[in-house]
Amino acid sequence: MADSFSFNEVDLCAYGLRLRSHEEPFDQETPAAQLIDKAYGFNSLRPPKTFTLDVAVSAADKATLLSYLDSIKGTLNERGDCKLTLDTFDDRYWMARFVGMDGQIKTARIWEGTITFAVNDPAAYDNDETSSPHTIDEDPEEFTETVSGTEKVSPVYTLTCDDTLTDTTVIITNAATGEAIEWTGDLVDTDVLEIDAGNYTVKLNGAEDMTTVDGQFPQLLPGGNLITVEGFSGSLSIVYRERYV
Asked: pTM score, two decimals?
């Protein structure tokens, strides 16, 4: 990209679009309950963001300009969330939904205006996944998972067994959040147990296996997270994308 942005993996600089500036709010909402003489505040919430992009589209002639505008509208005409990557932050992306496009043809070769996106998940995601491997050969096994970024992440824990474990209770605990999840069942060599903290699912060898699940799916906070794994022998892979507010 060159002073532009991409949406749904389409680089809009190919259609003569130049990003001149953008507005990205950063705020929190703090709900409260009002009693007769006092209000009690609840945990603050991070509301959705609205991105307003100030853009210009230029072309060699009016016919090409109109063609560019049609192509841009066709790219933006998605009804769901898509990846939005700004050239000014090309190491991360947001999941955004197109809201509107407004502007004017200033000359035969230039259109100027704004493009607006709603970002319901206000955190940005790193372009690259982090995959952190660990060997689990003690019970319990403890290690520290260090996460960059500025917001908590919802990882996928993939455990590959190397033993025969009958009626075992696999427990993953994050002391930093106080969250722990348990799964009870039988495992044999090469069985794969996947715990997806983002989608709240547990799968054994690719099939959902939620009957014996208890507890909370452990998130990871920015910084060090003390992870404890119990009732398991084998390898553990923790996969996530760092997030930024």
From this structure: 0.84
